[in-house]
Structures are given as C-alpha cells and as structure tokens.
Amino acid sequence: MSDLTHRTRSGIAAVLRGDARGLRSRLLFAGPAIIASVAYMDPGNYATNIQAGAGYGYKLLWVVLLANLIAMLFQALSARLGIVTGKNLAEVSRDNLPRPLVWVMWAISEVAAMATDLAEFLGGAIALSLLFGLPLVVGMAITAVVTYGILIFENRGFRPMELIIGAFVGVIGLCYLAEMLIAPVDWAALGVGLMTPALPDSMALTIAVGIIGATVMPHAIYLHSGLTQSRAEVRDDGDRRKLLRYSNIEVVLALAVAGMINMAMVVMAASAFHQGNPEVAEIETAYYMLTPLLGAAAAGFFLTSLIASGISSSVVGTMAGQMIMQGFLHIRIPIWLRRLITMLPAFAVVAAGVNATQALVLSQVVLSIALPVPMIALLYFSARRDIMGAFAISPLLRVLATLGSCAVLGLNFVLLADVFGASIPFLE
Description:
0% strand, globular
C-alpha cells in the first residue's frame, strides 16, 4: 500500500472521529463516485450522443437527463451497500441467492463486461487511428498496453488510482466545456428537449435505449459497492452515517458533472450537424466534419476527450470485471488474463469488418438489456433489514428505485417489440 493511500485512510479516520474539519479533509472522501462516473463518459456515450444530436437535435436530451437521475440513485444505493455491509454487490448476491441464480447473474454480467470492453477499446482505437493514421487493430493494441500500465497502480492501494482516473475525468470535462464555448447553442430548444419527452421514430427509440445503456452501466453498479466496502475503518453506525452522507454528496456532484458532459456531447452534435448533416452517425465522420464546421480546435478537443475516455473507461472496466468474477465465483485471475478475456470480442468485431460506431451503439443496447439484473438485485438487497439493518432504504427510495428499474425495463421491452415488428402506437 502506498503512503498516499495510508495517509488518505488515516485522514478519513480523523474526520470520522471529529479531529479534522474543512474542505481539504472532506476531499479525502472523494474517489469512488469519480471512478464510477467514468463509466458514464465512455466511448459508447460518444456514439449514442452523436447519433442523438445529429439525427434529432435536442429532442433526446430528456433521455440523457432521465438516465442521469436513475444513475445517481443506483450509484448511491451501490455505495450504500458497500459501506453498510463491507461487501460488494456480487459478494452479497453470492451469499444470499440460490447458486443457479448466481451463475446466471454472473454469466449476464460477463456478457455486459464484454460489451463494455467493446465500446471502450473501439473508442480508444478510433481516437488513436484518427490522430496517428493507424489501423484500428493497432490502436486497440496500444489502448490495451496503456490500460495495463495504468492498472499496475492498483497494487499501490486505492488513492493513486482515484487520482489518475480523476485527472482523466478532468481532461474530458475541460474539453467539453471548451466545445460548449465554441459551438452555437440554441438554449430555447435545449430547454424544450430537456423537459419534453418525445421519441420521433423507431431509430430514436434504439438510440434512447443506447443512451440508457451507455449512461447507467451494469459494471459501474457492481464496482461502486466494491470501491466503498473497505475504504475506511468503520467503528459504529455513527461512522456509517457520516460515510453515507459524504458518499451521497460525492455521487450527486460526480454524476452531475458526468451528466453535463453527456448533454454537452448531444448539444455539440446538434449544433454542428443537425441542420445540414443529420445523417452523421459515426465518430470518424464527426471528427472530420468538425474542422470545417466549428474549426480545428473543436476537432482537437473532441479527439483529446475521446482518447481520455477510451483509456480511463478501459481501466475502470477491467477493475469492475475482476471484482464481478471474484465476487460471484470467488475466483481471482491475473489482470492480464482478465484483460485478454474481455477484449477478445472487440478484436473479433474489428477483424470481421463491422462498422465501429454501429458496433458501439449496439454494445450499449446490450448493456441496457443486461442492466435490470444488477438494478433489481441492488434494490432487493438495499430493502432487506436482515442485510442492511437500520440502513435499509425507506419506502420512498424503494418506490423511486422501482420506477427507475421499470423505466429501463419498459424501454427494453418496447425496443424488443419494435425489433420483432410489433406495432408501437406512440412512435410517430
């Protein structure tokens, strides 16, 4: 364990005892939600948000807002589970559910992990390919090597990794702040898009489900509970309440930033492409067209943020995959092997010549379909007093979490109905 991690843990203990106060001391609690927030800014978000903005302008911003609110609730519940039980969601599931169900949950989670890696590797590879003119498969290999190099820092405890991922989040955020200053924004249309739910056609439905899948991520729900389970030494329920308060604040702030970045992606695509180029649907096309439309700086910021997104989300995805496998199966494998298992489908997609951006969007749909599994499990365990004790969620939170789960399930059901040709009245 590094001195940095040891000092952070000691500082948190001092705050819990009441021996330390102030903003600097409170910043010690920041970390888990920042790492989890990377899952909400991965390359899959770029693909779905570009298609949403280019094809439908500001009309699907309400989906981004809804997805972000659901994400806040479930990430807060995930952190709560880890703080209260000292276990992550996969471990709690293994200890309290029938063995066959545990195996099914693990299998679905592994499929989701592979879909996640597909998005992350392709995003990093596309960015490197555009920047250096490399073949896509070479860009993926470079992304894999850089990812593995960063993952080595995980052996030094939680704090170095939190700071590294936090730096990547900062880069992404600053890039999109610059994009918002460059792109002309129709603020009135933005407000209408945020507050008026609408799905103009079946393609909008597919993109909406993709946005949900790209925003509320299955692996992030598992990961957040693990990041909080042993970060601080807890003496009693008083300490747990303090930790929960700081955790909830961090979740709201970190995911609010992630939500604003996602909205900025849609706004940038709407401003640049919707009027004259609504057919733009690929990350590569978006990059090439940004220079003549908004200038070289906009294209440069876009590419920089995509590289930061691809690398950081790939690191976080590997951390989550390792935690899921260890939690469900009580098996820990070397990081390099874990990395190899989940990235093979991504290489297979590229080798098969599948359109990279379309593969990104479809991967997010797969994630959205897998998402109800951890959502329902988290809701079930969070409400059980024999597991959570005095920290079992209130009836109000139970209702809100149930509504969030139903929203995801409902969108998935409508998508599947549309795929199989069923008539959907509310689609124009």
